[in-house]
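From the methods appendix. Each design record in this collection lists the tokenized structure first, followed by the designed amino acid sequence. Records were kept in a plain field format so they could be parsed without special tools. The example shown here is representative of the layout used throughout.

RECORD:
FOLD TOKENS (356 positions):
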């Protein structure tokens, strides 16, 4: 089967074509700020991003009709349990209005569905483990403010993929393991895995947990409230400051950890302190997850792009090695393969296809 995988990010569009599980084509298009400025919202970017996908298909001699399975990254739709979902009209409606927020991931399922429709195969459009997967225990949802629930958006796809990978490598079932998985990327999410579910996790997109290369994470409420009503910022300016231009970028003007490490090598003490503070907060989040598991942790998995940084990983491990000596590093993320593999596994009958 030919599988088309589409993964839109805030400033990039990634796509891949697989023959079953063998990757044939992989392309990443990074979008300059000026390219996206004309669009008022994410949905308006649909045709722009769709044209990128169809141009790559043509470039490699493919037409939509040649594709058997269309898989898009899942967006901010309604909260769902983990699994493989066939995209339907209800999903498209919720993704189009941004039911739980306006984010580029909303376009993943929409583009997969539209291209499948173009090929008269709309029943072959799927998504896997959207960012709004919710398997949290009821106690984990209570925030302390009745109007706000501690359920948000996080890296469910990669968290699940590396947890299953670790289970396979150790010859154990995922459902038998008690894991803490820390995904370190543009956003940072730390999930507690037990009984085959992510029973607690910070909302990486919603402003919860450690600060990251571009997000402020958890900040003192009173100070944030004062900032909101200071008159210095519009809603949109403050939102950008919190998600996109916060965290390391806010302090150092870069979102690239390699740049930060170069600044440190050049003697920049502030860069050293900021990077160490991010690692410190990640370690605190991991340690708090160990309390959720009553201290019984089979393994801690560190994954995501920042896991390539030995400096950051070492700083974290120094503080968490008391929890378990079994700390596994899976640098990077393979969301494209996870999407293709998840959908194929369902098509092959090894996983249930869920209805949205």
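DESIGN:
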């Amino acid at each position: 089967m030919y599988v088309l995988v589409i993964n839109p990010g805030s400033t990039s569009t990634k796509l891949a074509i697989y023959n079953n599980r063998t990757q044939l084509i992989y392309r990443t298009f990074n979008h300059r700020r000026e390219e996206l400025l004309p669009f008022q919202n994410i949905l308006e970017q649909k045709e722009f991003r769709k044209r990128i996908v169809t141009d790559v298909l043509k470039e490699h001699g493919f037409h939509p009709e040649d594709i058997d399975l269309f898989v898009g990254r899942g967006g901010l739709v309604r909260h769902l349990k983990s699994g493989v979902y066939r995209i339907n009209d209800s999903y498209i409606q919720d993704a189009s209005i941004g039911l739980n927020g306006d984010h580029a991931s909303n376009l993943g399922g929409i583009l997969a569905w539209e291209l499948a429709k173009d090929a008269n195969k709309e029943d072959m459009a799927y998504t896997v483990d959207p960012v709004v997967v919710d398997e949290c225990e009821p106690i984990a949802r209570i925030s302390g403010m009745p109007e706000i629930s501690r359920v948000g958006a996080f890296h469910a796809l990669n968290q699940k993929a590396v947890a299953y990978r670790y289970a396979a490598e150790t010859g154990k079932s995922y459902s038998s393991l008690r894991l803490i998985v820390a995904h370190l990327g543009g956003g940072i999410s730390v999930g507690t895995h037990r009984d085959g579910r992510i029973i607690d996790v910070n909302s990486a997109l919603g402003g919860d947990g450690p600060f990251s290369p571009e997000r402020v994470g958890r900040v003192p409420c009173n100070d944030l409230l004062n900032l909101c009503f200071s008159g210095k910022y519009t809603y949109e300016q403050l939102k950008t400051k919190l998600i996109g231009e916060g965290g390391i970028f806010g302090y150092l003007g870069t979102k690239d950890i390699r740049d930060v490490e170069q600044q440190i090598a050049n003697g920049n003490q502030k860069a050293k302190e900021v990077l160490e503070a991010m690692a410190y907060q990640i370690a605190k989040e991991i340690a708090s997850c160990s309390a959720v598991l009553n201290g019984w942790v089979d393994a801690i998995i560190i994954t995501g792009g920042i896991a390539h940084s030995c400096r950051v990983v070492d700083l974290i491990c120094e503080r968490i090695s008391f929890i378990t000596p079994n700390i596994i590093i899976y640098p990077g993320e393979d969301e494209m393969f996870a999407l293709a593999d998840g959908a194929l596994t369902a098509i092959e009958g090894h996983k249930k296809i869920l209805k949205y």
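APPENDIX NOTE: Residues 42 and 132 are 17 Å apart (CA to CA).
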